[in-house]
Amino acid sequence: MRILQGTPASGGVAAGTACILPVRKKPAMQKQYAADPAQELVRLQKARACAKQEIEEIYRSACRRIGSRDSLIFQIHIIMLEDEGFQQAILDSIMQNRWTAEYAVWYNGNKLYRTFAEMEDEYMRARSEDMLDICHRLLKCLNRGCCMIPAVEDYLTEPAVLCLAHALPSEVVQSNQGRILGLVEQYGSSTSHSTLLARSMGLPAVTALGAAFRELQPGGELLVDGDEGRVYVNPSPEVRALFQKRIGGKTEP
Fold it and tell me: What's an example of a GO molecular-function annotation for this chain (predicted)?
């Protein structure tokens, strides 16, 4: 048995096998030039409308699921999507640099991602996940074949503890809740919107495992203690017994 210490993010305990998503890097692409910048602007406008519509649908679904207060996260996503500075930077990249809409979105989205990720304030650093979420959605709306971040549902085919480097807010709230028993992140923080949603959904969560995250193995048995920020890997019978009452007398994954 191994005990991994992270940061408590959402209270409660969960038991299950580990579903580990591959490391998902920020969307990356080669510089691309457009033959007709005016056409790229049209594509961008349509993609922005598509992304806004999808976020609004997520917001309405989240309201039904967790209530309107915590669902406001997705109204913030719309504000970030429509931010004048962000949109102007993309437009300038298309018109002045003659970049494709995809590359302009990726470049400027990635620039803002790094800006947030490097901030000293923990709350503002956590907004980098929101920027990644928005950038990925815009890219998908520009090119429906452009899926640079694997979907959680592609891996979470049965109830398990979801283990990944970073969780995006939209994928947490859109995932089949019955399949996510708990959430374990290599990075992340207790102030991220992903963990706020986990709390609203009653999902035990531990973040910031750091290098210890690499000790997790697909299909391995885990106990997640969201109150203490601990993850028990292949727990002993004694530890399983201690957790039994806390998880409703059912410790088998």
Answer: transferase activity, transferring phosphorus-containing groups
* Domains present along the chain, CATH in parentheses: 2-22+153-244 (3.50.30.10), 43-142 (1.10.274.10)
State percent of the chain over pLDDT 70: 91
- For residues 196 and 69, give the distance between their C-alpha atoms in angstroms, rounded to a whole number: 11
User: To 10 degrees, the CA torsion angle through 71, 72, 77, 80?
Assistant: -170
pTM listed for this prediction = 0.84
CA gap 151, 171 in Å, rounded: 8
Cα–Cα distance between 78 and 143 in angstroms, integer? 20
- Reported as half-sphere exposure (CB side, CA atoms, 13 A), residue 79 has a value of 6
> Could you give the 3-state DSSP secondary structure of residue 226?
coil
